[in-house]
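My current task is to audit a protein record that another person submitted. Alongside the sequence sits a line of tokens, each denoting a local backbone shape. Please read both lines and tell me whether the tokens look consistent with the sequence. Do not assume that whoever made the record got everything right. Thanks in advance; the entry in question is below.
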Amino acid sequence: MSLIFIIVVILILVFLIATVVHMYNRLVSLRNRVKNSFAQIDVQLKRRNDLIPNLVETVKGYAAHEKGVLEEVTKARSNVMNASDIKETSEANNQLTSALKTLFAVAENYPDLKANSNFQQLQEQLSETEDKISYSRQFYNDTVLMYNNACQQFPSNMLAKLFGFKEEEFFEADVASREVPQVEF
């Protein structure tokens, strides 16, 4: 009888250890997926940032008196490049998106610019990149949701606290980026 008791206790201990190892590895895996998905957003933001100077230079030749719009785009691009965490990156990205919307709205008033092949190519590349950024943001937020759930749900929340796993922030759009830009002349 004592041999059976010892075997049962050992099996329970093995099961508990295996469960803890599994939960820990799942938390590590989810945390790494969050980091990877944010890196994918960063790649697309860098691609967009690389396209913007060419776009600004193309627009400058046609819309020289739209200096304020061009400066806003340049400043917003700089803010994205200098962002140091998810919140700053999200806010800077929202500013840049708004500035680009304004730039494209201004471009509508310049038929020669709209017909320029360089401008059209840059606009297409930016549009594709914006789609990729949108997808990457969605994937990142889905990954953060899974990770944060694992950090909050019992029993993995106890393990998360024990090993210092912290919840991540979502990549959110601000209210201003949801509005249509107003262009006045």
About this structure: The chain is about 80% helix and 0% strand. The chain has one domain: 39-178. Residues 2-62 form the longest helix (61 residues). The chain has a mean pLDDT of 85.
